[in-house]
Specification:
The protein has nine helices and 21 strands. With about 550 residues, it is of the alpha+beta class.
């Protein structure tokens, strides 16, 4: 593993130990989470039982610490989580919502779909507070599930702990990684073929089990890739299931190792969902994630009768991305992070990038598809204006709470491992993120391999000029945000109509009816006063029509 200098670790811990000024915390524009462990210390190797309450009075309403717990009020089991982040005084936690009897309690927290496994992520070395949230939103926007998130402020045992992010844990669930359930007695036939989640990650945290790839990451490498079972869990997966997923992954890698790996009929496309690999590449490279490809990397596979191919994702752990790492060139805006195996200082690191990434990026068909996907995204969701709008919205939303966070944790202007640059104000940290991203996009535009040779019809141009995004959050509790992109057209500005319909097709309201210029647009829908259920929102912009489903849960 990469060795951190003792000086950096000690400096980070000593400077981070400062508790800052006392924060007189009484209310917030963010949801408030209150946890009481009743004097128990929260360990990192097992969970203790505690009480948790959540105060959330709806979008645009003030949340007061004195308010009743109105979003959740019950038992949890909680432990410290993370690896290198455990050296920071601002801890992150894994928690499980439970019944009084100790059984799992699937509940909806802050409008997210019901489940019992959650994470309270603690942005600390990421002083923008938003890198993980940005990455996950981009993934969801392009149609790839990533953990849903909610900013909040945490009070733990009457101690204000700052800005946190309530997140979904990656697991098999109809509203998370939506693959088939795999029970211990499903050991033959189509049942045996899915669903599975495997990962490449550090050997820390929960129980670990898996297998080594038979193929070296590169010739002469002293280390191999270790694939870990994630679902079914290591203590639940049975031998027949272990053998099946190992054989499947080994067959994929054997094909990638063979000379005919790119054969259009019998090559790698028989084993993998190519587009998911392309999107994974783009998301990791747009942030130049130093841990990308070799850590926090998840794969999933459903049954053969459903799809049967290997998907790459969901993405995970981007707190050291977007210019926030001072090693492996993570802070620079040029170069491909996927090529980290070739970095001169990387030889001692035991976590390598799998060999097949280099093979994929040498395949003409793969890079041409990559080029087309990148070109389309850059004219829509990954247009600079669209991306900056996301950052601007988060900066506005966190303006108040960020001040309390850095009063509690006075680390602005101080190096916290592994900051590439250090700024004295929170706004300067956010401005750096924005400027870094703009420069990174420009480099990727100039260096993205491949040629997009797909014929472009008038319909293709229309779709690329306009895009309707999935509302966020979805499902939602009272308020959700709908966004869309209007591309440049010969008749720009163009008249845009956006309306909401109920499940039987009746229009219930019109949100937008006006001429709009090219660019990224958003609108909030406050569904208070409407019944819970399924709704549809539909847009008409010139000749462009599109619609999507959303779920309102009171």
């Amino acid at each position: 593993m990469r060795i951190l200098s003792l000086r950096i670790i000690v400096l980070s811990i000593i400077l981070g130990m400062a508790q800052g000024q006392e924060v007189n915390f009484t209310s917030s524009n963010l949801p408030i989470i209150v946890i009481d462990t009743h004097g128990q210390y929260i360990p990192d190797d097992y969970r203790i039982v505690a009480d948790m309450g959540i105060i959330y009075n709806g979008a645009g309403n003030r949340n007061n610490l004195s308010d009743a717990f109105n979003n959740y009020n019950g038992k949890i089991a909680i432990e410290v989580r993370g690896s290198s982040s455990q050296m920071f005084p601002k801890k992150q936690y894994a928690l499980e919502t439970r019944l009084e009897t100790g059984e799992n309690n699937n509940v909806s927290l802050l409008g997210m779909p019901p489940e019992n496994d959650w994470i309270l992520y603690a942005p600390y070395s990421d002083k923008s507070l938003m890198r993980n949230v940005l990455a996950y939103k981009l993934a969801n926007d392009i149609g790839r599930y990533a953990s849903r998130i909610r900013f909040c402020e945490l009070v733990l045992n009457d101690d204000y702990r700052g800005v946190y992010v309530l997140m979904e844990k990656i697991k098999r669930d109809n509203n998370r990684v939506n693959i088939s359930t795999l029970n211990p007695d499903e050991i033959s036939g189509d049942d045996l073929t899915g669903g599975y989640i495997v990962k490449i990650d550090k050997w820390a945290g929960e129980s670990i089990d898996g297998w080594e790839s038979p193929y070296l990451p590169y010739p002469g490498s002293p280390y191999k890739i270790f694939y870990q079972y994630h679902y079914p869990k290591p203590d639940e997966i049975v031998d027949q299931q272990k053998n099946y997923i190992q054989d499947f992954m080994n067959s994929f890698e054997a094909k990638m190792y063979s000379p005919e790996y790119a054969d259009p009929v019998n090559g790698y496309s028989r084993y993998i969902d190519v587009q998911s690999f392309i999107d994974f590449f783009i998301l990791n490279e747009i942030g130049k994630n130093v841990d990308g490809y070799r850590l926090s990397t998840f794969f999933y596979k459903d049954r053969e009768s459903i799809d049967g191919k290997l998907y790459l994702g969901p993405i995970w752990d981007f707190n050291l991305a977007f210019g926030n790492a001072d090693y492996y060139d993570g802070g620079t805006t040029d170069g491909w992070q996927v090529e980290i195996n070739d970095h001169p200082s990387f030889s001692h690191d035991s976590f390598k990038v799998p060999f097949w990434w280099k093979k994929l990026l040498n395949d003409e068909e793969f890079i041409n598809m990559l080029k087309c996907r990148w070109t389309t995204l850059r004219t829509t969701l990954f247009h600079k204006d669209s991306l900056f709008s996301v950052i601007d919205d988060m900066q506005y939303y966190l303006e108040e709470s960020s001040q309390r966070n850095f009063q509690r944790w006075p680390i602005l202007g101080i190096y916290i491992w592994p900051n590439r640059f250090v700024f004295s104000t929170w706004n300067a940290e956010v401005n750096y993120l924005r400027a870094w991203l703009e420069t990174r996009l420009e480099w990727m535009d100039m260096n993205m391999p491949g040629v997009c040779t797909v014929g472009i019809t008038e319909d293709d141009v229309l779709v690329r000029n306009f895009i309707l995004n999935q509302n966020y959050p979805n499902p939602f509790n009272s308020v959700t945000v709908i966004s869309w992109y209007v591309g440049a057209t010969p008749t720009s500005p163009v008249h845009v109509d956006l309306s909401i319909y109920n499940v039987i097709g009746q229009k219930v309201c019109t949100l937008v009816s006006e001429k709009q210029n090219a660019g990224f647009h958003t609108v909030e829908w406050d569904a208070s006063g409407f019944a819970s259920g399924v709704y549809y929102y539909k847009i008409k912009a010139g000749e462009f029509h599109d619609g999507k489903k959303m779920i309102y849960i009171q």
